[in-house]
Fold:
Amino acid sequence: MSTSPEPIPVPVTAVTCLEDRAQVERTVVLDLEAGTQRLRLGPVSALAVDRSLHAELAADHPAAVLDARVVRAWTPRGPGPAADDSALRHRVSALEEEQRALEQRRERLHARVDLLGRLATDLLREIGQGAGRGEAEQARWNRELDRVDGERDTCGEQLRAVNARLTELAAELSDTQRALRLAETEPAELVGHIELTVRADGAGPARLRLTHLVPCALWRPAYRAVRDGDSLTLDTDAVVWQRTGEDWSNVRLTLSTARSARATQPPRLEEDRLTLQDRSPAERRTVHVELREEEITDLGPSPVQGPPGVDDGGEVRVLQCGAPVSVPSDGRAHRVPLSSFTTAASSQYTCSPELSPLVAQIVRFDNRSGHALLAGPVDFVSGSGFSGRGTLDFTAPGAPVELAFGSRDDHRVLRETEETRDTAGLAQRTVLTRTVRLHLSRFSAPAEHDEHVVVVRERVPVPETSAVEVSLRGKACSPAPDEVDADGIVRWNVPLPPGGRRTVTLVYDVTANANVRGL
Structure:
């Protein structure tokens, strides 16, 4: 069996990026010889998943793949930069070497200063003892003290110079290392190759296709909404991160929401025991109620549990990039354009004072991209430039889309509530009356003359039992609501001229029977 001594390059030609990993496809034309031979292909990413490796030859050549495996070799880097490293790496190495030398010199100077301090202490002790014994060697004592003080001053100056140089080195080294991180990546010490055993009936070229999975790659959708008058342009991008150890250069990129790591299995069946229990006469005469919050949702995708991921509505979505793309292996975010469309859009001003005192501008349009819009962040751009960032929910093709283009700084809403409780009738029915007043105001520039219509929404309770009734006081409501839906949402279309002020009043009664408790 012949063995190829030199590795054959196998560039990445196509990538399918999944939610938390990627499937890499490599294509190369091999010049095969007759018989069984072992080929060494690579280098490839050392993170390649061994069990996912699949190799196949084109059917137009009489050859077969007998074995394919990933082999890895570890080559540790030396203590210093290699000869072929960049000037930036050599500069970092030189600064680190100078820093180590200065730190050693600082330690030696500290040790010498401590030694001179102990020497001065011993000399002063000797002078004190000599003076006590009546010795008078003033000249020698002055000479020794001057020599010690001079040495201490010299070491102190050297120590201050070393500390100043170390401070400069630390700042320069930090800037150089930051520039190195932004410009280059650490060379891999662990390198992978693919050993391929092929049997060919005859010599000739053959096309080989290799596929395998790699971790450390993911993507998320992102959008850019540009509003121009009555039209809106929505750009759909894919933000791709990858740190697989090899760059993707001019590859066909496919984006999928498949979750290959999540096992699919039927739900586990568990017992659900139902027990009947007779109520006491007091319990039959009493109805317990409580106020609770219910989220109003339409039919749509169920929320994704666990860490933030790609919300695809429960169905695998596949998006294609129209042109070859390049994504370096630097771990940073790279935006890849997917689609763009321009459509007519309508806008309105709306507010829900119970939730927020701000008036938001809502833009509505239809999804004309030809594919589902996955949930993701949106950058808003209007006539004045970038105006903020919001979120886009999952939207099917052709379905309506609502985007909030921020709040209006010149609109304000003030909400006031009052509540009274009374007992009416012979049946001692409890009547709870709630009054909600909404004060809307608009502060406009002198050049504004158009009128804005603000859609104001409030809510009233929706009873689920016949023992509780909710009714609006039509005459007390000012103005009368334009709409009250089945979910208890009350809506007004309030016109606001420049500098105008309006007050909206909502009054409703909650009537409960005498046997109702908890209201």
